[in-house]
Amino acid sequence: MTTQIEKIKRTIEPLRQEIINHKVYSAIKDLDDLKVFMQFHVYAVWDFMSLLKTLQGNLTCTSVPWFPKGTADTRYLINEIVVGEESDVDLNGIRKSHFELYLDAMKQCGADTYKIEVFTDVLKNTSDFDSAYLASETPKEAKDFVDFTFKVIESGKDYLQSAIFTFGREDLIPGMFISIINEMHKSFPDDISIFKYYIERHIEVDGDHHSHLAKQMTANLCKDNEQYWQEAEEAVINSLKQRIELWNGVHRQLTERTTTANSMLAIAAGSA
Fold this sequence. Notes:
By secondary structure, the chain is mainly alpha-helical. 79% of the residues lie in helices and 1% in strands.
């Protein structure tokens, strides 16, 4: 099973490098650029939680009367991850999910939370994704990203859900982005302290402890089934491609923003 995990890692490495070296990171020049990034990325943070809770529902008994479900080892793995993701602590030691922590970070720096909050409110009340996308004017790339995740969720295949959870989200924050945030924090400590903390927690918890747990969970679910491993690899590849498209969407918006700003400056200079 370790061999199969390593095979997936080797196969997806080019895509992983494409994400880590994506041009979106170098396009983040100031706080306003970071706000745009967060307004897209928050959808990935939200649907990560949905994927997480789907796995918990599939791998453990969450109904009453209770009966043992699956193996205790796999139940432990997913429950341990859920504790850290759904009830972590913020800068003040207050329990929060990583999604709630991300919203706090957006509000602190002045990023617009309107779209994601309308999206989740409409979805909560109607269970209709199309209505939620329409009401919130969700960016197309974010919509496509969420749709892919929920396609895997709706497949009912826990080994696919575990695979994209494990490899589609792991270890994808480049050192360059961390450096940008650290430098930005020096100039705007009261604006991005929560986001800096979120990134640090993501690296500490998701990239280390949870990564090992998730790999073992995927191995437990795929076992020695070659078809499962092949399907898992294909799903992970598609998941990473969706991440690249999400970052492409952010980059396009940042480029358009820069072009508009430069045009305005040129007009102003011409008027003067």
